[in-house]
Amino acid sequence: MIEVQHLTKRYGPFTAVDDVSFRAETGEILGFLGPNGAGKTTTMRVLTGYMPATEGSATVAGHDVFADPIAAKRSTGYLPETPPLYPDMTVREYLTFVGKLKLPASVGKAERTSRVDAVMAKTHIADMANRHCSKLSKGYRQRVGLAQALIHDPEVLILDEPTAGLDPKQIIETRALIRSLAGSHTVVLSTHILPEVSQTCQRVVIINKGRVVAVDTPDNLTRQLKGSATLYVQVDAAGADAAPVLSGLDGVRRVVELDRHEQMVGFEVAADADRDVRRDVARLVVDRGWGLLEMRPLRLSLEDIFLQLTTDESGNNAPPPESEQPHA
Amino acid sequence: MRNAFTIAGKEMRGFFVSPMGWVVMGLYALLFGYFFMAHLTYFVQQSMQSQMGGGPININQFMIRPLLQNVALINLFLLPMITMRAYAEEKRSGTIELLLTSPVSDLQIILGKFLGAIGFYAALLAVTMVYVGILFAFGTPEWRPVVTGYLGLLLMGGCFLSVGLFISSTTKNQVVAGAATFVVFLLLWIISWLGQSAGPAMAAVLEYLSIVWHFEDFSKGVIDTKHVIYYLSFITFGLFLTMKSVDTERWRG
Lengths: 328, 253
Ligand SMILES: Nc1ncnc2c1ncn2[C@@H]1O[C@H](COP(=O)(O)OP(=O)(O)OP(=O)(O)O)[C@@H](O)[C@H]1O
Ligand SMILES: [Mg+2]
Fold this sequence. Notes:
The complex is a heterodimer. Chain A contains eleven helices and 14 strands. Chain A is α/β, with parallel strands linked by helices. Chain A folds into two domains: about 1-225, 3-Layer(aba) Sandwich (Rossmann fold), CATH 3.40.50; about 230-295, 2-Layer Sandwich (Alpha-Beta Plaits), CATH 3.30.70.1340. Chain A has a six-stranded mixed beta sheet, sandwiched between helices. A four-stranded antiparallel beta sheet of chain A has the order 2-1-4-5. A four-stranded antiparallel beta sheet of chain A has the order 12-13-11-14. In chain A, helix 3 packs across helix 4 and helix 4 crosses helix 5. Chain A starts with a strand and ends in a 19-residue tail after the last helix. In chain A, about 40% of the residues are buried. Residues about 315-328 of chain A have low confidence and may be disordered. Chain B is mainly alpha-helical. Chain B has one domain (about 1-250). In chain B, about 85% of the residues lie in helices and about 0% in strands. Chain B is built from eleven helices and no strands. In chain B, helix 6 (about 105-140) packs antiparallel against helix 11. The radius of gyration of chain B is 20 Å and the shape is globular. The mean pLDDT of chain B is about 90. The chains are: A alpha/beta, B mainly alpha. At the A-B interface, helix 2 and helix 3 of A face helix 1, helix 5 and helix 11 of B. The structure holds adenosine-5'-triphosphate and magnesium ion. Magnesium ion binds next to helix 1 of chain A.
């Protein structure tokens, strides 16, 4: 179980994570979704005890991350954004070293060796056991990083972009592996890839500019935003200036011009949640004498939802800050 | 402590599998060999002369003592190369994230790194013992000043290494770490020279601060607790600074 309450992290004057709260129940896979620079890595680094928070509290597997860091770390497996490999060690040497650090003192040499073999089999790296970490491809580095996180069979797994750099087959296998961990483990994974969230996660936390903008199941998120039915309405040239008139309709939240040709103009009409404005829109268009060429509901993919949630009021997509610094 | 030894083992291993470790070891043996030859030649000359007039001269006093004092000079150049990677490299490669998120305390990590560095330094000293062994094979030096001399060297090197560790923990660039460490070593080295131009009271203070001055008694075969305490507190202070620095970096992120 993971519980984060009012977590704030500032780097000097810059607030990277701003009053973030969420919970992941035991056995759950929680997706952490957000654009570049949203604060995903920062949140994970606080959860794993890599750095302290400026404010707020976090509990991992029942241990307070700040008050009892060693116990919390013992229950946590962490795959950082860059897999933390020692280039001059072979994969087996590396996993043995991590095993010595993370397994309790009571675990003997034979058991440690069998743990190393087990995680290598799980992450499909057994064929690379004697290869130096410096000679591994990006995908294999990622898998060794994952193996390292699993070595002490931790209750909580925190995975920062676990499928980044993997080939399609590996992505499928890794997702299956992560899914198989659910139930007995609590998993938090971050990603930019939306299908990953709908395929692997039971719940999603969408974070933008350090703030949580939505927490729900992928299905609910899709439904909720679809509920605020968005229509595509195309009228002929007579309705060229229809936008302000359509916006005036009761229940219409927003009208955006999508496309315009000589003969036609198309609008996206977003209505308030659970309002069906199709009849009103049709009546208005006919009353005004514009030719109604097309009207259909716009289906929002998770991508659209993501963009919508992480888009600020001015309508610009929150861009990743150009000056984003490499992580310390 | 088990964790500290795990990390120390990893550090030691790192020296022996990296070209850097072998380069340092080779240079150490080479420089020591050079000083060994120089002192030996001088000693042979001196003893020839003394045979003509007066009794034989003492090999401990005229050969081994100045030779061991020269090790301080070798340390000045080569020990920065041992510690410069310690933290800087872990930060650059991101492996620091593994260490800091493992169920290991900061103190255990620092002790592990320090033990690893001093273990490798001990291996360097062991190589130099081969040369000194030659003297025992062909002559009859007193062993006591040799043993205390090496103990002193170990403690003196420990001071350098603890400072080097601290400097390495403040940067992620190992070249910067190495250069800064060298400069600080140099300052610690020459601080006693400054004393010679100052008044006697000042000279005593500066001399006391100088890492090398405390070594002299060791090389004469004397273990004075005053010097042992100086070295041990210096090392503790260096490790304490490292601890503070790691903690500060952690807050900074
Ligand atoms: N050590 C640091 N010092 C100062 N600012 C930092 C530091 N680390 C991260 N930041 C800033 O904090 C913000 C959040 O960064 P973070 O790495 O948490 O984002 P992220 O969601 O993981 O992004 P990405 O998807 O690109 O991995 C960014 O604006 C980043 O520039
Ligand atoms: Mg990130």
